[in-house]
Design brief:
With 458 residues, this protein is of the alpha/beta class. It contains nine helices and 18 strands. The strands form five sheets. A five-stranded parallel β-sheet has the order 3-2-1-7-18, covered by helices on one side. The protein has a five-stranded parallel β-sheet with strand order 8-15-9-10-11, covered by helices on one side. Strands 4-5-6 form a three-stranded antiparallel β-sheet, with no helix packed on it. Strand 9, helix 4 and strand 10 form a beta-alpha-beta unit.
């Protein structure tokens, strides 16, 4: 009897899993299992599906995506390019290194369509509960078919969790927020920077989302942007006429407008945006199956960052803090595919735990150096370890070139945060340079797929 595999989520990580199995099927390398992918949205693409809605969507489900209008890639596309499907192959021409969201979304979905994977996906089918029986050695996956509006349960030999971890906001509490008279929102609810034109905006956080949302507000005419950090300033040279950094917010005054900070400074603001990250949240998993971690390069409990050590029939994809995104998802998917197909033998549970402990120690050392590039290099080494065990068409040299791209990108950001997207990088897949986009990012206000590709043709 064929194995049955459930994949939960049809965003980039889940689609990587489907593509990995499809690749093996094309090569005729093993008997393929029966695969069903459950996706709560009505289309695949995960976070890359923009929705104007926030909170709860029209279907009664929490809105998954936190992407916003005029979002452009904040990292070089050459560092997330699929090794088996290049941007050049998809678009038939060179494009810029930092395309807008609709361009990246089109690229993600095109590989899935080309691979004929849609028939494996059950859309509008959020998973409600996953349990495992020691007696039958099978998982029971219970889901809600929202199209027909009924609850169903199916049994599987393996389950792959690929739901991502950027959809459940981490919302800190500060004294006096309930008194604030302006708008308070988490970055997950941010949809359009033009809403903050002529406003004094306070951003809590110093992560990539704080960088980008602050840059968006600057680009679309905010009066001022103040970034409030918990640990230390970003070190970025912001446009001085509108931007400053202050220590962490302590409280909001009872007047509903004045914010007080740890350095005893204070400021009147019109809006507060919480760029405070997300929680790993898997309410559909039984306790003995649930990964519990914060956002880090090496979550404990996952052998090779993928296999649930307490029950190797369960796997997770894309649960790490991410530099490489799609590249890492593919590397993980190809590895776990071989585990499920039986061509990759796992060590004992103790050996798996020791392997994870050593990687965690490497992460701890990298974090102590307080340099994000050290964590990036660690993730690059992790990807090398995965791809060297599989037939994924990405070489060590290609990964090292992507590493250098990231180093150059970080340097460009430090040099000029508003102009780093105006640089070009070389594809490690095709060897060709990206095309210089004719308009600087700061002056580009149209982000549709059609307008972007037309501009690239100039």
């Amino acid at each position: 009897m064929k194995k049955r595999v459930a994949v939960i989520g049809a965003g980039p990580s889940g689609l990587s899993v489907l593509r990995a199995f499809q690749s093996a099927a094309e090569k005729g390398s093993a008997e393929m299992p029966e695969i069903i992918c459950y996706e709560k949205q009505s289309d695949w693409g995960g976070l890359w599906n923009y929705s104007w809605q926030t909170g709860v969507g029209h279907d009664g489900e929490p809105v998954h995506s936190g992407m916003y209008r005029n979002l452009w890639s904040n990292g070089p596309k050459e560092c997330l390019e699929f090794a088996d499907y290049s941007f050049a192959e998809h678009f038939g021409k060179a494009i810029g290194s930092f395309p807008p969201r609709p361009v990246v979304a089109d690229y993600i979905k095109a590989r899935a369509e080309k691979s004929g994977m849609r028939e494996r996906v059950r859309f509008s089918s959020p998973v409600r509960i996953v349990t495992y029986s020691d007696e039958t050695e099978k998982f029971t996956v219970t889901f809600h078919d929202r199209t027909e509006d009924h609850i169903c349960s199916h049994e599987f030999d393996h389950v792959v969790v690929a739901t991502g971890h950027f959809s459940v906001p981490n919302v800190p509490q500060f004294e006096g927020l309930s008194c604030f008279n302006g708008r308070i929102l988490h970055s997950h609810e941010f949809r359009d920077a033009s809403q903050f034109r002529d406003q004094n905006v306070l951003i809590i956080g110093r992560s990539y989302s704080a960088e980008d949302i602050g840059s968006q507000c600057y680009k679309f005419g905010a009066k001022s942007i103040t970034l409030s950090y918990r640990s230390k300033p970003t070190g970025i040279k912001w446009p001085q006429e509108k931007w400053k950094e202050v220590p962490l917010l302590e409280r909001v005054d009872t007047n509903g407008k004045t914010c007080h900070f740890r350095d005893k400074s204070k400021l009147d603001v019109d809006a507060i945006i919480l760029c405070t990250g997300y929680r790993h949240d898997f309410p559909f998993l039984a306790d003995d199956l649930r990964l519990k971690t914060d956002n880090r390069i090496w979550p404990l409990g996952l052998y090779e960052g993928v296999v649930w050590e307490r029950n190797p029939k369960l796997s997770y994809v894309g649960m790490q803090d991410q530099f490489f995104t799609f590249t890492m998802f593919d590397a993980q998917a190809w590895y776990l595919r071989d585990v499920i197909l039986g061509s990759k033998e796992l060590p004992s549970r103790d050996e798996m735990a020791e392997h994870s402990r050593k990687w965690r120690e490497l992460e701890d050392r990298a974090v102590e150096l307080d340099d994000p590039l050290e964590c990036m290099a660690l993730q690059a080494n992790y990807i090398k370890e995965l791809v060297e065990q599989t037939d994924y068409p990405l070489s060590r040299e290609m990964i090292e070139e992507q590493e250098q791209h990231f180093r150059d990108w970080e340097h460009h950001k430090t040099e000029d945060i508003m102009a780093y997207r105006d640089h070009e990088f070389r594809s490690v897949v095709t060897g060709t340079m990206a095309k210089q986009f004719p308009t600087s990012w700061l002056q580009a206000f149209e982000d549709s797929l059609e307008s972007y590709l037309a501009a690239c043709a100039l």
